[in-house]
Every structure is written in structure tokens, then in C-alpha cells.
Amino acid sequence: MAKNDSQTIGTIEIQETKTGKRGDMTLFIPPYGALKFSLSEPTEEDKEKMENPPAFWVWNGRNRYGGLWNNTSDSGAEYLSGNFFCLGFPGNKAYVAAFAAKDKQGRFRVVLNFREE
């Protein structure tokens, strides 16, 4: 049976730009401290090639670490979720979900999901 536990570990800030949506994700992960990632929408080429492209790619520098997809909860709340490469996690993947913050448009609270089989 799988055990799920979650913990708030950071924030996402998304802005509208002339070329689309962009964002910054800051995660606070011991023992690394604050890790900063950039978010960008997939290119038109990505969208044509992929059956289910993410809403945002997760980047660190020039390296693409993973993606975040749009989802809707059973209660109708929209959120982002996905995984990305991060040393120190089982399988070197961090599984996250990001929920809209009530205090500011474009801000999300990031929750880390620990998965055990």
C-alpha cells in the first residue's frame, strides 16, 4: 500500500510576457537550501511533437529538469503537478504539486509529495 505525505517547500511566481508565460520556482530543500528553477511554456514544436506537453518546463540554467502539467482536483480546483530531476530523492525525482495562492494572482504554493511503495 502506498503512503503519501506532503509538505510545503516553496513557491512559484508566474508572469505574462510578450512571448508567453514565464515563471520562477524557489524550493527550500534540506540540505541544499534554496534551489531556483525557471519555468517556461513549451514551444510550438514541443506541442506538435508531444501528445501531452506540460504547461511548463522546469529549467535550471540551460538544463531542462522536468515538467509541470495542468490538473483539476475532484472538487474542481486547478493546480499544477509533475516531477523533475533532483538528487537526494528516491529515483532522483522530486514529485510536486502547486496550488494557487489566495494572496496574489500568479503565485502558487509548492507541495512536495513523498511516495513510498
Concise synopsis of the structure shown:
Helices cover 5% and strands 63% of the residues. The chain has 117 residues and is mainly beta.
Give the helices and strands, then pairings:
Layout: E1 3-17, E2 20-29, E3 33-40, H1 44-49, E4 56-60, E5 63-72, E6 78-85, E7 93-100, E8 107-116
Antiparallel strand pairs: 1-2, 1-8, 2-3, 3-4, 4-5, 5-6, 6-7, 7-8
Describe this entry's structure for a reader.
This protein has 117 residues and is mostly beta strands. It has 1 helix and 8 strands, in the order E-E-E-H-E-E-E-E-E. The protein has one domain. An 8-stranded antiparallel beta barrel has the order 1-2-3-4-5-6-7-8. Strand 7 and strand 8 form a beta hairpin. The longest helix has 6 residues, at 44-49. The termini are close together. The model has no long low-confidence stretch (mean pLDDT 87).
Question: Tags for this entry?
Answer:
117 residues, mainly beta, 8 strands, 5% helix
Judging from the principal axes of the Cα atoms, what is the shape? globular
Work out the number of β strands.
8
SSE ordering: EEEHEEEEE
Low-confidence stretches: none
Strand adjacency order, main sheet: 1-2-3-4-5-6-7-8
Counting structural domains, the number is 1
- The percent of residues in helical segments reads under 10%
Structural class: mainly beta
Mean pLDDT: 87
> What does the largest sheet look like?
8 strands, antiparallel, barrel
Number of helices in the DSSP assignment:
1
Q: What is the radius of gyration?
A: 14 Å
Proportion of β residues?
Answer: over 45%
| End-to-end CA span | 6 Å
